[in-house]
Model the fold of this input.
Amino acid sequence: MSEISPAEWTAILLSLRVAIIATLVATPFGIALAWLLARRDFWGKPLLDALVHLPLVLPPVVTGYLLLLTFGRRGLVGGFLADHLGIVFSFRWTGAALACGVMSFPLLVRPMRLSIEAIDRRLEQAAETLGAAPWKVFFTVTLPLALPGVLAGMVLGFAKAIGEFGATITFVSNIPGETQTISSAIYSLIQTPDGDAAAGRLVIVSIVLALGALIAAEWFARRATARLHGN
Amino acid sequence: MLRVDIEKQLGEFSLSATFTSEGRVIGLFGASGAGKTSLVNMIAGLLRPDRGSIVIDGETVDDTAAGLHVPAWRRRIGYVFQDARLFPHLDVAQNLDYGRRMNGLAPDPAQHKRVIDLLDIGALQGRRPGKLSGGERQRVALGRALLSKPRLLLLDEPLGALDEGRKLEILPYLVRLRDEANVPMVYVSHDAAELRQLATQIVMLKQGRVTSFGGVKVLA
Done:
């Protein structure tokens, strides 16, 4: 196998950019939702829980199509954002980031939620008796103790975002340099007569990224356990 | 001064307690399940009474008739739990400093030194809670509560999780604390011997009711 070509680099770097932005934007929402699901009881909680997990079980093409209907130029939200804030998703890399963010959200939230659930709530009570207002308790006790889980969720979400294909190609198509991620580049290459070598190289890149992320997530999970035991 | 007049229904269990105390150390005595921890949690503000009022040091912190409930973090109380509850992600020095930071108090090196000497915890400062013995953990928890400058210190069976040897190790510190720290305390225990050494007044609790109240001799 020869070296990675400039066109392949473009796809790899675009994938990285899309996945990093998707993960960073999704993280605050993920933490808020993880906390809500771990700590609060409210009407409609099972529904919200199901909604978060929906992209995991829905055919990706359906999610992509729904995104197109909602965030496309003529979509309800997409039209508003384009007219008033100048934010356009359709056929842009930002749209790819949105699709990846939505698709990876369930994987991102889950470790965060589990790590918040694992925190001894009596520690939060102790913080309260020491004079910490609820938001201070969150930032000085809950979040630091949940940090390894938060990072693990980010890593998993990132790995999922890097590999996303169905929803992305449905929503923003497959435009080299704009929306062509590693996955869509592989898809195009294996349909081209002599694209096998290039596809093979991108396949290896995907495997390396995915494996690296899984190992990192595992490492963070082990750190979380050590942290909760105060060692 | 502490004035308590509350009622609380907890499932099948009903708690009803009324007492006023000027004592330096109020011993809350009773068997397990008598409602001691629930009562202390209400004084701390972690649990809301169904009916009644609680007054700490002249400030009404609970008054159900007026719809008043001051949250725990604004009560300026110190609470030492049976299971220390040190923050595992912070070292001992950071645990000790936590209350001061949360209350936005200026550093007070003199008090800091006094408390650390009183409890002999100077050598532990850089350690993580996971690396402390049960007795050391409890001393750090005491220091952490004191350094938040509480107007009332609540101790819920602080020796309960320790074996006999460790208890004897901590008890002298508690006596010193009572005599030197100058903070009124509510001391919860099911051990009459412990209370005889520490308390100046006793509230005896049995199945959710105050059965006697007075000097240490009511323990006899």
